[in-house]
Amino acid sequence: xxxxxxxxxxxxxxxxxxxxxxxxxxxxxxxxxxxxxxxxxxxxxxxxxxxxxxxxxxxxxxxxxxxxxxxxxxxxxxxxxxxxxxxxxxxxxxxxxxxxxxxxxxxxxx
Length: 110
Hints:
Blueprint: E1 3-9, H1 18-32, E2 41-47, E3 59-67, H2 72-87, E4 95-103
């Protein structure tokens, strides 16, 4: 039940269908066998102002929030699967980063 959260630069991505980016990340996870389609939640947030290094090159940051307890190999595989999938889109950004974050299993409720 990962939550995939994509933060992207509003201006640089104005001609990009962000739903396609969400679906690409989701489908990469499903194709990898890590999670089933029915388990994945996705959302995206645009940001208007940003800096990157010493300039304002556009970037995307993807956070994959998963329940705690997964081993390091699983978390690494998750980040690589998402990154590889989204990179196929050739988006108008300088860099794409992915971070896998553990959600405390004991306090997560739905």
